[in-house]
Design brief:
Length: 434
């Protein structure tokens, strides 16, 4: 049995004892907080400017999409369609002969719309091309790509939530994804990130196999992966599959209304999964609340709402009665502020991205990026949550924001690799040497 004693300031994020002066670990897990032990196999004396705490968790991102964006043409800074098309005109195909681009936000383009298939044709020189918007829910293909993919029903080439069609696009090489992941994980480690939740609604066993291969070769955060509610394939909630923890059943509401939300929720619950429902507006929140009220989750589990970006007070009251949690993204308030100011009424702005209203109702909240839509940056989420640029009555305290971001409160049994040392210059792993 090996032991490690840490002496110095320890932030636990446990409301009953938020600060401790030492910590004892045995065999790689937290054994005792505020221990009486004076000796151990190894002792770490923290500097006065250092704090040991649980690391950060990004509780909602899309890892494969994030890696893919780093292997694509970045058009996120385009302010007009002309800018976007110029970037494509000066680019070339990737190794598999396709041109991929990502990152434009139609509401931030001068024309306030998506590019069209014919516009892409004018600059892509016969190279099959797919361009994804920043949300990941919309993609535009040129004529060559449409022909190869046998897409004939979309004359403008604009595909909304058609991952079934886009799945025919040749995959990026796994070796490229691994190389990108290795570099990205190093950046995340410097941010103090120790765990992530992949919330992709198209995740299935094949997707998780890819995540597992990446995780096995790259020194990255612990990964929990949600599974599409229609793709559970015999998997079990909470099991570890090839090193990946299986999370909630992700429910993406059907924009065409062909699938009944209540049925999807009930089926996932019947399979032993709590659900995580994508909720971005008041109407969808109402439908989701109705579905959750009609079907309780399996015992000892909590359903989740992803985003919950717009909510009326009476809807939050109903949510509190359900004992469901919310995973939200404060950074949208800064990165889409102009859009919100232009598109939403003052009343709607008051209901936008609630935080303190959730805390006041004792609703559990976690923070996240929704990467690649917004970059992974826990310090940014904490800052925006405490100093909101819009309707700051929804701001929370620094302690509350950080507690929403840590992987877990510091309790016995927490793995040592979930702990970080916070210094004035950044973060490093607990066992890092100077």
């Amino acid at each position: 049995m090996t032991s490690l004693l840490v002496r110095g300031k320890v932030h636990t994020f446990d409301a009953s004892r938020p600060v401790a002066t030492n910590l004892l670990l045995r065999d790689g897990v937290v054994h005792e907080i505020e221990t009486s032990a004076e000796e151990a196999d190894e002792v770490i004396e923290l500097d006065t400017n250092e704090i040991v705490q649980p690391g950060w968790r990004d509780d909602h991102l899309h890892l494969l999409s994030t890696l893919a964006t780093h292997c694509s043409i970045d058009v996120s800074n385009a302010t007009s369609l002309a800018d976007l098309l110029d970037l494509l005109r000066s680019s070339s195909a990737g190794e598999n002969g396709w041109m991929r681009a990502w990152g434009y936000e139609p509401s931030l383009l001068r024309e306030k719309r998506h590019p069209t298939k014919l516009e892409l044709d004018q600059v892509t020189r016969g190279i099959p091309t797919v361009v994804h918007d920043r949300s990941g829910h919309v993609a535009v293909v040129n004529s060559v790509a449409a022909e190869i993919l046998e897409i004939h029903d979309y004359p403008d080439g604009i595909l909304v939530e058609r991952q079934d069609l886009l799945s025919r696009v040749p995959r990026l090489e796994l070796a490229d994804l691994k190389q990108t992941a290795g570099n990205l994980f190093k950046d995340w480690k410097r941010m103090g990130l120790v765990a992530i939740t992949d919330a992709t609604h198209t995740n299935d066993r094949a997707s998780i196999d890819i995540l597992a291969e990446i995780a096995e070769e790259c020194d990255g955060p612990r990964i929990t992966a949600m599974v599409g509610a229609d793709r559970l394939d015999g998997m079990q909630f909470g099991e570890t599959y090839k090193g990946i923890r299986i999370g909630h059943a992700k429910v993406m509401p059907d924009l065409d209304g062909k699938e009944d939300l209540s049925w999807l929720v009930n089926q996932a619950h019947a399979s032993g999964f709590p659900v995580a429902v994508h909720v971005m507006d008041i109407d969808m929140l109402d439908d989701t609340l109705h579905a959750l009220e009609s079907s309780p989750p399996p015992a000892l589990t909590l359903d989740r709402l992803e985003h919950c970006s717009l909510a009326m007070p009476e809807q939050l009251d109903r949510l509190a009665q359900l004992d469901a949690s919310v995973c939200t993204q404060p950074s949208f308030l800064t990165r889409r502020l102009d859009k919100y100011l232009e598109d939403l009424s003052p009343v709607e702005q008051a209901w936008l991205w609630p935080l303190s209203s959730l805390v006041e109702r004792s609703i559990k909240v976690t923070l996240s990026s929704d990467s690649p839509v917004v970059p992974v940056d826990p310090d940014e989420w904490i800052h925006v949550a405490t100093a909101r640029p819009l309707r700051n009555q929804e701001a929370v305290s620094d302690f509350e924001a950080r507690a929403m971001t840590v992987v877990s409160p510091l309790v016995p049994g927490l793995p040592a690799d979930s702990l970080i040392r916070a210094t004035s210059s950044g973060y490093k792993t607990l066992d890092a040497r100077k």
